[in-house]
User: Fold this.
Amino acid sequence: MGRESLFGPDRICAVVAAPTAKEMARQLRRALRLTRTVELRLDWLKGKREIVRLLSWLRVHRPRATLIATCRCRSAGGKFSGGVAEQLAVLMTAVAAGCTWCDVELETAQRLRPGGLRSMLGRGRGLISWHDFGRTPANLRAVLNKLERCRGGAIKVATQCNSIRESLRVQALARGRRNVVAVPMGEIGLPARVLALRQGSALAYAPVEQATAPGQVSLEEMKQLYRADELDRRTRVYGVIGNPVSHSLSPLLHNTGFIARRMNAVYLPFLVRDLRDFLDAVRPLGIAGFSVTLPHKQAILRHLDGCDPLAEAIGAVNTVVVRGGGKLYGYNTDYVGVLRALERRVALRGSRVLIFGAGGAARAAAFALAQGGALVAVLARSEAKARGLARAVGGEVIERGRLRREFFDAIVNATPVGMFPQVRRSPLRAEELNCRLVMDLIYRPMKTELLRRAAQRGIETVSGVEMFLAQGIAQWEIWSGLRAPETAMRSAVLAALRREERLRGAA
Ligand code: NAP
Assistant:
């Protein structure tokens, strides 16, 4: 539990939203396991009867929590179809049923005479809110002033952020204030949303089940993965930059490590469309290091102050350390990932390894294997690219037609063929697998069609998840200077991937 706010001891506010009172009550009970501050989206209930039902239930059960009643009109982005008078009547009933706060949108508050809202809500306090689901306006101060003129107990600004810079502007509204709730919306705004409490926002919203605004983080993640209410000025901030990035398992991997080692550090997913926009936020957010994924692995090189020579030779950086004065230093741990995943199973020195593909991951794999003493053979659909990579690592180019006749100690797939959703595809045919071991760099699914074919021929297999874990663990150790809690990190990622596969199987 973090520092107390105007809303009580819990600053993470669970959002409960469902079409029926029964479902809302179930979500409320679930929310109370993690927080005692809960927003009830009464406008999500289908019809007046369900609203009455839920409020009667509240009157009887009186949960020990700070309840915020919201009955947002359609014109302000909610689902309530009634007029202002009906909306206010619902909110007054909610106060009688035990809600201590009412979220009243600016559009409604402005229609009341000065002091009208206060007398209407009685014991209830007004959280005057303003939303823009399309953009973040240039003049946020003007919005703040309008909200303050309504004289509620607190004010809330929620705007769609189309750049990281915008999300920092929204977050800054709460600095040094007790009564401001700042909500940067949208996927780009997610890191600022998680860090908002640290910046002084009185609340951070997180849905129990149903997202009610774009870019929301679930209650469990907000509380248990990001620990948003425990972050403070000393928290070291890390993250992954990419586009897309929402599917990334890196936040789970790294935060699990920080939690296991009880470190005051957090790792966030940054959706980055424009590298400059992110790099400008490194200093204001106090970012201490970040992972780099597609499409920025090559482009980031131009912005570095220094780079590990091997990463430079590979031509890609997936790990950046922010040193004193904001200087950026790049590494490539994909390289380490391939090496660690393979060297346990194959004596690399003097071995012959085929790499299929000649893109970024193939380059990291080729350099790793050559460094480990293997003779690297490259097969790619573009012969020129295969030749370029083979030359860079002193290896050979192999034509596809020769595969049936050649033997390798290991074959590594570094193409995306077979990756979810095209899980039935394989980059190579069974009879082309003349080797002792097959490694697929793909980890969604964990067992690809290629690995299945290899296993059927009695060939040892290695999933890309091994590389994913090893590259991430190497990053974690570079940043922290500590031994990573590998078992905890590994179990968290494997459990998440298994859960994903079960859900896909059920769909
Ligand atoms: P990339 O830079 O885009 O390279 C992809 C390579 O695959 C290129 O050589 C491309 O050929 C080739 N390719 C694409 N489609 C093909 C097809 N249908 N048939 C034959 N070749 C094809 O991507 P990357 O970053 O190297 O990633 C490659 C794979 O590795 C992805 O599945 C990625 O998820 C995986 N990966 C895993 C990890 C991990 O931690 N496990 C880390 C990084 C990457 P062209 O150049 O001719 O297009």
Summary: The two ends are 37 Å apart (CA to CA). The CA atoms of residues 167 and 192 lie 6 Å apart.
